[in-house]
Write a structure and sequence with these properties.
The chain has about 210 residues and is of the alpha/beta class. It has two domains: about 100 residues, Rossmann fold (3-Layer(aba) Sandwich), CATH 3.40.50.720; about 90 residues, Immunoglobulins (Immunoglobulin-like). Helices cover about 20% and strands about 35% of the residues. The protein is built from four helices and 13 strands. Strands 9-6-12-13 form a four-stranded mixed sheet, with no helix packed on it. It has a four-stranded antiparallel sheet with strand order 8-7-10-11, with no helix packed on it. α2 runs parallel beside α3. It is elongated and about 55 Å long.
Amino acid sequence: MDSLESLFSLRGHRGLVTGASSGLGVECAKALAIGGADVALVARRKDRVVQIADDLAKAHGVKAIGIGADVTREHDLDRVMAEASAALGDLDILVVNLGEPPSLLRNDLSGNNNWLKVKLIGTKSNRSAIGARVLAHYGRKTQAQEVISQSSFYSVNDSRLHFGLGSETAVDLDIRWPSGLQQSLKGVAAGQIVVIKEGSGIVPVKTPKS
């Protein structure tokens, strides 16, 4: 880990590490702490990551928290980001690349721009809505995104589509489903996660119990 620890000067930055209860996850969290970064450790075993976080905080004089969660579950991922941001402020991300040096994604932005996150549920199409295309129209701009099943080897993106809207407070959505159905929604308010069912429109969000 010497090469990893010497890559960055991280004082004043924050990071989040998943799978942080053992192995490489622990080593990544340790490298961040040695570099001076505050760090959130996430794993299913809350007792384990809380203890590791306490040890890192005492050993390296940084702020460290442990969060028990399964980040493959969407509502857990949202909770993790909310808890980590509340405790540490804006987050930086360390990505461990296969066969290559790690990448540090620094979050140095500030501001209160608006956003919208869209979750699609297929009925005639596949339930995951893989292959669906969404156009978001706001102001004089248009963004296009598609739901895909995989982004690279052994990894997958959040199936929800995230649209940054700048200062706009509402957006019009055009959806083309894999079945061929086309659906339009007007004036969807920014700053929320919307669940859209094929042929039905926006449906209430159901948050499973942890």
